[in-house]
Amino acid sequence: MTPAARLQAAAEILDEVIAAARDDGPPADAVVTRYFKTRRYAGSGDRRAVRELVFRAIRRSAEIPADGRAAMLGLADDDPELGALFGEVRGPEARTDGERGADATIVPQWLESEFSPLVATAEWPALLERAPLDLRVNAARAKRDDLLDNFPGAEPTPLSPWGLRLPADGRLDDHPAITGGLAEVQDEGSQLIALACTPRDGDLLVDLCAGAGGKALALAAAAPGARILATDSNRARLSKLGPRAARAGATIDTLLLNPPNELEALAEWHNASDLVLVDAPCSGSGTWRRNPDGRWRLTPERLERLLAAQARLLHLGAALVKPGGRLVYAVCSLLTREGAGQAAAFLDRHSSWVFEETPIRAGRSDGVGRLLTPAHDATDGFFVARLVRP
Predict the structure, then answer these.
(1) Residue 94 burial class via C-beta count within 10 angstroms: exposed 0-12, middle 13-18, buried 19 and up
(2) In whole angstroms, what is the distance from residue 141 CA to residue 126 CA?
(3) What does the alpha-carbon distance between residue 229 and residue 266 come to, in Å, rounded to a whole number?
(4) How far is the C-alpha of 54 from the C-alpha of 273, rounded, in Å?
(5) Which of 1, 77, 78, 153 could bridge across to 5 with cysteines, CB 3.0–4.6 Å?
(6) SS3 helix, strand, coil % of the chain, rounded to 5?
(7) Element of type H or E holding 241
(8) Which residues belong to the active site?
(9) d(CA 99, CA 72)
(10) How many beta carbons lie within 10 A of that of residue 237, not counting itself?
């Protein structure tokens, strides 16, 4: 493909990404993959170059562009070499007089007032930097120092005792340490959420929104003698945990939930759990480094639905905690209403509950919890709070 053809391909892909964002369709990565499945003529260099253009354009604009052409014109405003490709053979049509490109912004304007006061505007550029590739060493089967030599260029993560950090854009799916269950890909911030739970052997633990089970696996590695139940309402995501647990040598029970009948399905765990982790669905504003098109998907209406779901899940999780047990609430969000505000509202509704300090060497105090941010901690953004039932 010529450089002009690559630019045109990126514009076409962005048309699909924009449509998917508006219609709650597949994420940008999946759209790029699907596009090239039907275009076998594109070599690996072409695919890398086009993908780079697509994600440069997504990172550049917080507001959803009118179309892929507008997104590419925005890039051309910053890069005259790209601008020269408009009008070339197999490239986008020539730019017309006065034709505007998408504006360069970091945070959608409507969302600016929602951010935690800790996330000052000086921190915003870090929200879109390339994220490193972090691994979590399976502490039940290996020591971090013993695995360092298996990953050239890896360094111990500074905050998690289980983590290794590699440069961005690495691919390790077929690495023997991964396939052998000695390590898993997991951002250091996500590892710290599991660390904040302080799981103990003999505990009864519930991971209420387990998804594919990353944090449940971390809990199992930290406390192999705990009984862990991982639940979710998404069958496809939860089904991935079984093979991952077998690979890691972990014993984790799973339960598919059917909202709004979760409490009936979890009757055995009522007032019985030492720990309930509520890693709730959220805006994902803490993961824009990895999913920059998430800014295009979030709307005020969607945020309100997420806030209601988080409050409901906290209420559900609280019913499972035994006296003296703890509820750990986490969201990969930097928004006050999803983090500190949600935890404070829970304590207002449950006046006998108290909070305790979150035992991790990271983040900054934010209300009753702690907030991790890309700029301050070099992790994905997370809010985490520990709530205790007397």
Answers:
(1) exposed
(2) 34
(3) 10
(4) 46
(5) 1
(6) 45, 15, 40
(7) helix 241-248
(8) 332
(9) 12
(10) 14
Distance separating alpha carbons of residues 132 and 155, to the nearest angstrom: 11
Contact indicator for 228, 284 with CB cutoff of 8 Å: no
pLDDT for residue 342 is more than 80: yes
Look at residue 5 in the predicted model and tell me its pLDDT: 94
238, 217 contact by CB (below 8 A): no
The torsion angles phi and psi of 9, rounded to 5 degrees, stand at: -60, -40
For residues 60 and 48, give the distance between their C-alpha atoms in angstroms, rounded to a whole number: 18
Crossing angle for the helix pair 28-37 and 44-60, nearest 10 degrees?
150
Helix (H, G, I), strand (E, B) or coil at 356: strand
Distance CA 264, CA 279 (A): 21
Least confident span in 200-209, 220-229, 354-363: 354-363
Q: Alpha-carbon distance 202 to 195, whole Å? A: 17
Q: Over 80: is that where the pLDDT of 309 sits?
A: yes
Residue 39 has pLDDT above 90, yes or no: no
**DSSP characters over 50-94:** HHHHHHHHHHH-SSPPSSHHHHHHHHHHH-HHHHTTTTSTTSPPP
How many helices (H) and strands (E) the chain has is answered by: 16, 13
Phi and psi dihedrals of 21, rounded to 5?
-65, -40
Q: Once rounded to an integer, what is the mean pLDDT over residues 364-370?
A: 97
Check whether 44 has a pLDDT greater than 90: no
Q: Is the pLDDT of residue 246 over 90?
A: yes
Tens digit of each residue's pLDDT (9 = 90 or more) over 268-281:
999 999 999 999 99
Instruction: Give all strands of the β-sheet with 155-156 in edge-to-edge order.
Output: 155-156, 163-166, 133-137, 183-185
Rg (CA), the chain: 22
Torsion of CA 265, 215, 280, 235, to 10 degrees: -50
* CATH code of the domain occupying 188-388: 3.40.50.150
The whole-angstrom separation of Cα 201 and Cα 383 is 26
Neighbouring-strand partners of residue 387: 327, 355
Signed CA dihedral, 261, 308, 207, 111: sign only? positive
Q: Determine if the pTM surpasses 0.90.
A: yes
Distances (CA, A) of 302 to 88, 306, 308: 41, 6, 10
